[in-house]
Amino acid sequence: MTGQAKAVTAEPLGLYVHVPFCATTCDFCAFYQTRPTAAAVKGFLECVAREASLVPWTRRVSTVFWGGGTPGLLAAADIERLAAAVRGRTGGDPLEWTVELAPGSVTQQRLAALRDAGVNRVSLGVQSFQPGMLDALGRRHSAGQARRAYDRIRAAGFPSVNLDLMFALPGQTAQSWADDMREAAALAPDHISTYCLTFEEDTALWVKLSQGRVRLDPRKEAGFYKSTWERLASAGYVQYEISNFARPGHACLHNLNTWRMGEWIGLGPSAASQHGGWRGANPADLGEWSRGIARGERMTEDRTELTPELLAEDSLIFGLRMNEGVDLAVLRRRFPGAPWREFEARIARLGGDGLVKISGSKVRLTERGRLLADAVGAELMITPAASAGPEARQTRAPP
Ligand SMILES: C[S@@+](CC[C@H](N)C(=O)[O-])C[C@H]1O[C@@H](n2cnc3c(N)ncnc32)[C@H](O)[C@@H]1O
Ligand code: SF4
């Protein structure tokens, strides 16, 4: 597994900062974001520093992830300010520090500020290299801008670069998706994330779907998934999770920690946290979040106690989405109080249906299981749902 190539400490701790600013809203996106006025950015930076002062920092931070929104929209001076707020809390250099960038805002000045701050991984939202697809997604950048942004990121010397691509888009053919993967692999990034388009409620694409102007095609989706797995493998990328592929040593440690049900601290509006026995999220509204922080309150939405049942269930659901799968013996030791007889009965049923492969205490999805991963997850849900689940803080929700 590529994730094991880098040292992961015994108890990793992630730090996620949600930077809620975008120049425009893409037609598919439901991540919380707003327009970056000077006053809004200033208030955000002050409140992040204040929120960080409310956190009980009990150990060293192993990974940092600035997501959004578009953290790369911040001016160089603001990047420095945010980095100072983060560095004061990490207790040393994190193993991995990722920042999400959109192609339209990648400048040498911003990249230099990020490098100086200690960022060592960049995630670039390319989505597609086809003008028609970028148009269908309401993206404001061109394929040329994405290529130039990538070249600048490489020239700036970041040791690990990810490209985000999306598939199963309205009007996309198998050939145009194959062309996108070929173009992405030709750039030789260290990591590629491939996301199946989700029609998120209240986005422009969701409205089109509900008006019948675009259609869902689950059979086509399965074909896209399979071709992704085959093509990226033959281009030298090892799949380590349903949507994620990496060259050896370049799996995203921050996301691995989340999927393995480690602990992470989320700062900023809409950021989810899981630490100190609790899971919860910040309000997805800059004003409401700021007012809460001014009162000394964080993690106020969907606050849920982390019980062994909940952690075991999520370890199974998210663990199975990874190619390494789960080791039931290890999970039993971590969460002895969870209802293991019930989980094991359900896993045996999934095995009987050909969705998981069981060898000893290890369980992995079969290819069919990987295509039906949401259904497998639903089968393993036995605790009342906790809505601020770990997916609230991935770079995006799993398909
Ligand atoms: C939070 S976005 C931030 C990246 C950056 N703002 C950008 O757009 O370039 C992270 C990634 O999530 C993926 N994403 C967001 N919404 C999605 C959706 N509805 N379906 C599939 N993928 C989605 C996109 O690939 C995007 O690059
Ligand atoms: S996809 Fe990225 S740039 Fe587009 S609205 Fe979402 S966060 Fe902003």
Describe this structure in words.
The radius of gyration is 20 Å and the shape is globular. Helix 1 links the parallel strand 1 and strand 2. The chain is 40% helix and 19% strand. Helix 1 (38-54) crosses helix 10. A 9-stranded mixed beta sheet has the order 7-8-6-5-4-3-2-1-9, with helices on both faces. The protein has a 3-stranded antiparallel beta sheet with strand order 10-11-12, with no helix packed on it. With 399 residues, the protein is an alpha/beta fold. The chain has helices at 38-54, 76-90, 108-117, 131-136, 143-155, 174-186, 204-210, 218-234, 253-259, 286-294, 308-320, 328-334, 340-352, 367-371, 373-379; strands at 13-19, 63-68, 96-101, 121-127, 160-167, 191-196, 238-241, 244-246, 263-267, 272-275, 278-281, 301-305, 326-327, 356-359, 362-365. The protein binds S-adenosylmethionine and iron/sulfur cluster (SF4).
